[in-house]
Amino acid sequence: MSNAPQPAAEKLGVLLPGMGAVGSTVIAGVLAIRAGLGQPIGSLTQMGRIRLGKRTEKRNPLIQELVPLTALDGLVFGGWDIFGGDMYDACTTAEVIDRSLLDQIKDELQTIKPFPGAFDSNFVKRLNGTHMKTGTRREMAEAVRADIRAFKADNGLQRAVMVNCCSTEVYIESSDVHMTIESFEAGLDADDQRISPAMIYAYAAIQEGVPYANGTPSLAADIPALEALAHERSVPTGGKDFKTGQTLMKTVLAPMFKARMLGVKGWFSTNILGNRDGEVLDEPEAFKSKEKTKLGVLDSILRPEHHPELYGDLYHKVRINYYPPRGDAKEGWDNIDITGWLGYPMQIKVDFLCRDSILAAPIVLDLALFLDFASRCGKKGVQEWLSFYWKSPITAPTVYPEHDLFVQLSKLMNNLRHMVGEELITHLGVEYYEEG
User: Fold this and answer.
1) Number of other residues whose CB lies within 10 A of the CB of residue 429
2) Residue 61 carries which DSSP code?
């Protein structure tokens, strides 16, 4: 049984590095829901239920009735962006939410303005910002920390969380500057070019005791230095890369193939996307970051080393194509070549015409509320029980990530039960009987 968590704060700050399509959609969505103009569809914290005890007990409360979470009315939004303006400007530029809805919450949206963003064009090469911090890495990190403190003070907040919604950075791997807290701090002081803006935001959050989640594939809080700092500062973290469209489908379909022992010979995935994320990912070095998170899913689920005859020669290809006319309405198309009894071939084709930011927004909300809850339960470091939300879940180095969506959901629910002192559900001990 877990110790009782601290009660939820009446007001919780939600800080978003990157207040473009995803960030502005989260904010506008919450404001619209608070005003009775929509429903929080897609959010477990707002609409999900959780079973408690035996099925015969019929105890299925809403998650928000079981778990102490700050209500939507208590959320206060802030963040950073490399483009100026307010959240009404950001929403109209993103063209995700209809103008008729935005105009009903325009006054509130216009009060939310981002701090200048930490930025380095070497990490995001297709964007030219107009609202950016200046100075060295150390100066930018200290400026972000000062922003966090000012945001909390100005809004009378005791608690805040940070969810990274920035554009994908170019692919890099950890090097010596990322290995220890000492080397990272020295790198900030030396303005080491290997320290990215994503790392600066993560560092600032952890140093300020703010739980941090990385919604991008960029290397950030998952470097050894910041993992150690999160434990030292008792800060929960999570990541990485929001699981929204095509990868969400893979984590549903691949478990089915494995459960039924159906072979998979090839899986070709392509996307067309026209928003700022699509423009950034048109840069090969940025796409490599996204490709790494997308390609790891199938191997982790299908485990070809255990079933070489079914998955040993699987050919997996992923493509993302920038196509401006689509805007935020992404299309993910998959062709899957499978084999059945006696090796006979079959095909499955999936065409998912989704809205990227609409799928990401409830993830941001859930992560903010669940990470604050984890913090109030005394958790620190990577919260693997939140793998449900990630394309590339971060885990301890000794274990592989779990990608099966339904296993992930079971782990999430059991962790919630444990954290509030309820009995875990294992599906063992079921008794069968004959009636009459």
Assistant:
1) 6
2) -
Cα separation of 90 and 96, whole Å? 10
Of 66, 13, 58, 63, which Cα lies nearest the Cα of 43? 63
- Residue 110 in 3-state DSSP? helix
The residues near 65 (Cβ < 8 Å, ≥ 6 apart) are none
Specify the residue for token string 């554009």.
167
Whether pTM exceeds 0.90: yes
Mean pLDDT split into 10-residue runs, the chain, 436 residues: 79 98 97 98 98 93 97 98 96 96 98 97 89 97 98 98 96 96 98 98 98 97 98 97 93 97 97 81 75 80 95 93 87 96 98 94 98 97 97 89 95 97 81 45
Hey, what domains does the chain have and what are their CATH numbers?
12-242+358-419 (3.40.50.720), 246-355 (3.30.360.10)
Query: Tokens 């998952």, residue?
Result: 222
> At which residue do the structure tokens 């010596």 appear?
176
